[in-house]
Amino acid sequence: MKKSILTLCFVLMAAMSGLVMAQEKLQKPNGKPGDRPSFEQFLAQKTRFLMEEMKLPAEDSARFMPVYLDLQKAKGELMRRYRKGREVGRRIRKGENVPDSLYSQAVFSDATLQIEDAKLDYEYLQKFSKVLTPKQLYSFQEAEKKFRNNLARQPRGEKKK
Questions:
Q1: Is the separation of the CB atoms in 51 and 61 below 8 Å?
Q2: Most buried residue among 4, 21, 69, 76 by CB atoms closer than 10 A?
Q3: Is 86 exposed, middle or buried (0-12, 13-18, 19+ CB in 10 A)?
Q4: Could you tell me which of 110, 36, 48, 42 has the C-alpha nearest to residue 72?
Q5: Packing angle between helix 2-26 and helix 39-54, nearest 10 degrees?
Q6: What mean pLDDT is reported for the chain?
Q7: What are the residue boundaries of the structural domains of the chain, listed by start?
């Protein structure tokens, strides 16, 4: 049992170091304020932040991280499915003449995305509760909120023309 936990810890550390190396490799040498990080960079940054905030022991972290990365993958898939609705919204904001059906599509697509995102969060909270204590689960939720708040306070940079 100890060997399998130790092996899993090493695998997770290797995966995390791979994400960090990918982040360093993908960073642009002369990063400008408007440059956006890749999803991999963002995920590596968020994961590091959560692990620091949650202060999970290695064994708990080894059980938590695969489930957390599954959640992030599922959320990425969800966003890809709803990109079309967001494109319609961009066209509307640009002032393009679009039919009423596209307005409806944009409104209902956004609402459906929010519902499905909430369902994913609930589903994964149940999964997290199987690998984390209630105190750790609360710590995870607080760390997520803190990360979002920190992200919201950061300047967005210059808009692309």
A1: yes
A2: 69
A3: middle
A4: 42
A5: 130
A6: 79
A7: 2-25+38-152
b/e per residue 29-39 (b: at least 16 CB within 10 A): eeeeeeeeeee
The 3-state DSSP class for residue 46 equals helix
Provide the b/e sequence for 43-64 (b: ≥16 CB within 10 Å).
Answer: bbbbbebbbeebebeeeebbbb
- State the average pLDDT over residues 126-135: 96
Q: What pLDDT does residue 20 have?
A: 45
* pTM summary value: 0.68
C-alpha 134/C-alpha 126 separation (Å) is 11
In angstroms, the CA 72 to CA 67 distance is 9
Residue whose entry in the numeric block shows the structure tokens 């808009």: 159
Choice among 9-23, 41-55, 66-80, 141-155 with the minimum mean pLDDT: 9-23
The span from the CA of 27 to the CA of 20, in Å, is 11
**What SS3 class is residue 94?**
coil
